[in-house]
Write a structure and sequence with these properties.
- By secondary structure, the chain is mainly beta.
- About 10% of the residues lie in helices and about 40% in strands.
- About 25% of the residues are buried.
Length: about 180
């Protein structure tokens, strides 16, 4: 009888090893590990986009628009997870700038990340553009705060043309997460 139990145990262990080999590093496993390592549930991961500053808000096609984005790590104090994603800026839904971002083991509650993006507007059509900043993390506990949209649009006019309503070029528009208290 003992041989049967041992053979059954060996079969189960073999099946688990084969299953683990089919899903390297836990990617896409039919179960989730509690630790967060190797494809865990990531429930402790939380990035929050806090602020986006765009300048100039009124520019000519061909000008460079500076976009500053701030996001924070707001997950659990104990962090044993990492992932690579992109910090991106979109204008009317199209990615206009981005950089890889590695969220890693060293993150601490409240860590703040700042990135400056330069949008070369050469070749863009004149008009108004809605700006959105995002740092989408696939296992984020609260994905609804991984992006932020600036309420006022950026206006691009043809090179040499006057701005609407006699306004001057320049200005700044800011999108801010309403729950962020600046120090």
């Amino acid at each position: 009888m003992g041989g049967r139990k041992m053979l059954g145990g060996v079969s189960i262990v073999s099946a688990l090893l084969l299953l683990a080999a089919a899903y390297p590093a836990g990617a896409g496993m039919p179960w989730r590990l509690a630790s967060g390592e190797g494809g865990g549930d990531g429930a402790h991961v939380d990035l929050v986009v806090r602020k986006i500053t765009v300048s100039p808000a009124r520019a000519h096609v061909g000008d460079t628009v500076r976009i500053e984005m701030v996001w924070q790590y707001w997950g659990d104090m104990i962090n044993n997870y990492y992932d690579t994603t992109n910090a991106e800026v979109l204008a009317n839904g199209k990615v206009i700038a981005g950089k890889p971002f590695v969220y890693n083991f060293g993150a601490k509650l409240g860590d703040t990340y700042r990135e400056t993006f330069l949008w070369d507007t050469m070749g863009m059509a004149p008009g108004t553009y809605r700006i959105r900043g995002q740092v989408l993390l696939r296992l984020d506990a609260t994905p609804y705060d991984n992006f932020l949209e600036v309420k006022e649009p950026v206006t691009l006019v043809p090179q040499g043309a006057p701005f609407p309503s006699g306004e001057e070029g320049g200005g700044t528009v800011v999108g801010k997460n309403p729950f962020w208290l600046e120090k």
